[in-house]
Description:
By secondary structure, the chain is an alpha+beta fold. The protein contains four helices and four strands; from the N terminus they run H-E-H-E-E-H-H-E. The protein has a four-stranded antiparallel β-sheet, sandwiched between helices. Helix 2 packs antiparallel against helix 4. The chain starts with a helix and ends with a strand.
Amino acid sequence: MKHLILVLFIGSLGCVSYENDDREKAIQHVVLCWLKEPGNAADRAKIMEVSKTFRTIPGVLEVRVGEVIPSDRAIVDDSFDVGILVVVSDAKSLQAYLDHPIHQQAKQGVLLPLVDKVRVFDFQESPR
């Protein structure tokens, strides 16, 4: 089941599409987390659970979270522990999400204490 979650997360990068009233394309905010204690199941669960609370932040269209899928393929970086995808409608919504108290509390109370390294990738969908 845990592998299915990340497969859905990764698959959603190319197929989730939203348009707001201004016809701007949705922004995909991808966060990869490396734990201070790599592989710690309890810490992974805490991060995944708190990430789900981001769904209540205004402007957030979707949140998906999952654990890394181990891979033997050289092109795949499977060194991280948890992946988070937050989809927002536009740049203004991304900033509102980043500044929102729910996100800030999760970051300060759960993410920073448990995570050794974070990589963030933001991209905006291109027109079809």
